[in-house]
Amino acid sequence: MKRIDAQALLRQVDLAELIGRTVDLRRSGREWLGRCPFHDERTPSFTVSEKGFYHCFGCGEHGDAITWLMRTRGLDFRAACAELGGSEPATAAQRIEPAPARTRTSEWLPITPVPLDAPPLVDAHGRATVWNPKRGRVSVLRPTLTHEYRNSEGRPLGYVLRADFADRATGKRIKITPQVAWCVDRGGATRWCITPFATPRPIYGLDALAAKPTAPVLVVEGEKCADVAAPALPMYAVIAWPGGANGGAHVDWSPLAGRDIVLWPDADGPGRAAMLGSEDRSGFVRDGVAQRAWRAGVRSLRFVDVSDVPHGWDIADALNAAESGWTPRQLAPRG
Question: Is the Cβ–Cβ distance between 65 and 15 less than 8 Å?
Fold first, then answer.
């Protein structure tokens, strides 16, 4: 049997072109981004790297061009190589069944801005009653924090909630921060749903950007940090983004065009990676806010060095007088 030089074969394959035949990809820095074909998703988490591999941050699928053909075309190794020009054509006997994709029984689509006649998300008793499409049931939350996302005119777009509760099995406190949007299903029904905002997702603080069109912009991680920093540092338009450290890839950063930007990361590895980008051991490069903001056309970009503060600190910790005693006057020069 003829030996196949798989590495030589892979070097001559344009993986993005191959995958792009069946998956809608868009360029994102040194990668391409699209919706994963191996599981059902609304928010793109499937990436194709210039280094010759694909990876889905939603379901974990990972591979090269040969793996791609084996998984999507139902070919074995030699047949996949044949499709790439490495050996004899595939035969019916060489085909295997591809893994089926997971599907949802119902689809709810966010409506933005939220219609004026939509009921309040949180009732008079502090409860948020929302539909959870993934679980197929109603969830009743008692949020400790409610962060309203608004457009540049101040119209609500959706919410990020913080809810804390005790795990019945361990007794430990658990924090969840779901995104909640006013949604419509295919039958025309409407309700509040736990679901990611429509992609590209909005910046938290679009109304602040519009209200302070010439002010420098302070970018922090997390809505709580933005809410604490905004009144303490009124010389800035303070913004954040939904989805935590890994959510920046799904955000529309174009409103930052022409602005002067200051990045204030959390004082840990994920916080710095979220702001400045990172590269893992396999050489997979992930952009941070800095790279995305620069591509959006910001005028200038600065970064606050947090190497001299306790591990895990964020700007909210720095402004907490009970812990640090820092004042806005002390804080401002760091930017």
Answer: yes
Q: Is the pLDDT of residue 125 over 60?
A: yes
Residue 267, pLDDT > 80, answer: yes
Q: Order the strands of the 26-28 sheet from edge to edge.
A: 26-28, 31-34, 46-49, 54-56, 62-63
Domain coverage including residue 69: 6-94
CB 160 within 8 A of CB 177: yes
**What is the separation of C-alpha 334 from the centre of its chain, rounded to a whole number of angstroms?**
27
| 103 part of a folded domain | no
Write the DSSP symbol of residue 237.
E
Query: Do 244 and 292 have their domain in common?
Result: yes
Half-sphere exposure of 215 (CA within 13 A, CB side): 17
Q: Does residue 14 or residue 71 have the better pLDDT?
A: 14
pLDDT tens-digit readout, 163-196: 887 766 677 778 889 999 999 987 788 999 999 9
* CA gap 59, 78 in Å, rounded: 26
Q: How many domains does the chain have?
A: 3
| CA-angle at 316, arms to 318 and 332, nearest 5° | 55
- Listed residues 40, 67, 94: the one ending a domain: 94
Residue 12 burial (10 A CB sphere; 0-12, 13-18, 19+): exposed
Identify whether 199 is part of a domain.
Answer: no
